[in-house]
Amino acid sequence: MNPSLHPPSKLKRIWAGVLLTLFLVQVLSFFVGLVIPTFRVAVLWGKTVDERRAFLSPSAAVFKASADRFPLTARVYLVDPDATSHKNSLYYFYPRVVSITMTDACYEGAYETWNERPPMGWLVTNGYTYVISFKDSKVTKVRASPPQPEGSDAK
Amino acid sequence: MLNDILRQAFAVLVIFAAGLIVFYVVVREPQQYSRLERVAYFWPLGLTALAMPMFLMLLAGMHLSATVIAGLVITVGVIARLIRGAHLRDYWRGPSASQASTTPLTKFEWFMIVIIVACLGARTLDSFLTPMYDWDGVCTWGVKAKILFFSTLRGGWDYFHKAEFRCTNQKYPLLWPLMYTWVCSVLGRWDDRAMCVINPVNLVAFITIMYHAMRRIVSRPVALAVAAVAASLPAVLHYAECVQADVPLMLMNGASLCALLAWIQHRRRESILLVAILLDGAMFTKQDGRIIFLAQICVAGASIVVGSSRGERKTLWLHLGMATLIAIIYITPWMLYERTVPIWTQYYRPLSLSTIRWRELPAFIQMVTENLVHWTNGVHLTKWNFLWPIVGLFLLSSRAPWRYPMNYVLGVFLLHLVGLSIVLLAFTYPFTLSAWEFALERFTLTMIPPVWLLLAKCVDEWWDVWKAR
């Protein structure tokens, strides 16, 4: 466009003003996005990493604290899993082995159908050392002899 | 504490160094890029260059070793220097034919710079404080990185193949988890707070690359204003902190698009080689990277057919063929490995004309529109401010997006949009915003780079009209 040869019509100039004003509104909305990290920094500053985790995701903090109680060589069978307990356990317990199935079944989107409560013999044979139920807040140590509840504060 | 900071800095520097080597080998005319822009390109190039050797090491059953990777980078750097010949200092110091303006910055421009620095600075500081906590970070990306830190791809085979672990999205590519594994390998321990040091670099590199690309086609205040919008967009700022691969994919898409635009305008071979390498990075970051690859390669082909003289076509097809070949060779090991991972058909059916739910198209469009215009998402985080209605108005009322060379940028955006929509229409999930909201936010982020270039060109066009009063 050469403005000296073809000056824009009045309507076009008005439309340019409208569009540029709208764009300016978007530019000046920068504080909406800036609030997100600024608020986060203000809240997290001076806290320990565990405190920050607990603030951001209380459930993540619970699963991490639970996992830290077990030796790294633990092999855990998780009973009564749901999406939250299963996925958080997979991450926070690793490198401890966590399993919810005896049959390599996938329960994604169908945790309510889970029904794989293993007998003690199977757990011993497959090397599992603990059975955890976050639903019942219960940890059971796997032994060749009958199982003995270890505590009720897994959660 | 200081030891950790030094190790984190070393991990980041090695990635930059790997990118520098790739840039040094590929780009014969570094003066086409400003120094800041070169450094920004080092980051996505370094991610791409390091990820595949890391993947192959882990596939071979070797643990990721900081010494081995650093040694590899130094060795390749020395070989590159010997073969390439150009002295690195001269290469770096060479004049920059950039758009650097000698005009002093206006108050408006200073204000835009303050917005950009404040947003990037706040996000960077936040990333240094925040441990991984986001759901997809834990379930998909973080768990993969942790497995690869403590084990290898061979040792952790079950996690990537057994049905029990399908909830971790086993087929997702590994570039980004590998980088967390890399940082933790340098640290010598698994630390899901310290590894997040690499998160903000993606956004900083992205804004730098996009600003310089915009600066080539529009005036400085407009480029700064659009860069300020890009840097302050709530969804971008939120996801830049998460342990997820969407912002890295946005970076790969943006960087390759800018290189593609340079190739379409100037037809330099080095530009299309950068496109190839960055598209490799995109394909190894997320599966959507393949759609971006197809979109950009198709547009590059179209630019040869439509926008070149008969005499230069043979050379340009050779350029494009070489780029495609490089991309395919790079990604082949991952594709072969991925074929060993079972397909998860619970939510998704293999793509074919019969599996695409065309009848659901109205519901799909409604869902996408809602995603673009809603102020907050399901967890009350702001999304786009007023961006999409404004972009729509600008696109519909401006001429620039429909003319050379921006029509090719628009083409990349539309092909990406159509390709992704077709893939999503094959999902069996109901098309409601509550079911798709977060996925749609992330898909939108990865598609956004062309929008910044188009918006900048549109704003520039109307700014000229306004100034001509």
* SS-based class of chain B: mainly alpha
Please tell me the overall pLDDT of chain A. Answer: 89
Taking all Cα atoms into account, the compactness measure Rg of chain A is 28 Å
Largest interface: A-B, 53 and 63 residues
Estimated structural class of chain A: alpha/beta
> Alpha-carbon distance between the termini of chain A?
69 Å
Give the N-to-C terminal Cα separation of chain B: 59 Å
The tally of strands of chain B reads 0
Key descriptive features of the protein:
heterodimer, A: about 160 residues, alpha/beta, 5-stranded mixed beta sheet, 6 helices, about 45% helix, elongated, B: about 475 residues, mainly alpha, 20 helices
Describe this structure in words.
The complex is a heterodimer of chains A (155) and B (469). Chain A is an alpha/beta fold and 155 residues long. Chain A folds into two domains: 10-45; 59-151, no CATH class. Chain A contains six helices and five strands, in the order H-H-H-H-E-H-E-H-E-E-E. Chain A has helices at 10-28, 30-44, 49-56, 58-68, 83-93, 120-125, and strands spanning 75-79, 97-99, 130-133, 138-141, 148-151. A five-stranded mixed β-sheet of chain A has the order 2-1-3-4-5, with helices on one face. Chain B has 469 residues and is an all-alpha fold. Chain B has one domain (2-89, 104-463). Helix content of chain B is 71%, strand content 0%. Chain B is built from 20 helices and no strands. Chain B has helices spanning 2-26, 35-59, 66-84, 88-93, 107-129, 135-150, 157-161, 175-187, 199-217, 220-232, 234-241, 246-266, 269-283, 289-307, 310-338, 361-373, 387-397, 406-425, 433-447, 449-467. In chain B, helix 9 (199-217) packs antiparallel against helix 11 and helix 13 (269-283) packs antiparallel against helix 14 (289-307). The longest helix of chain B is centred in the C-terminal third of the chain and has 29 residues, at 310-338. Chain B starts with a helix and ends with a helix. The model of chain B has no long low-confidence stretch (mean pLDDT 94).
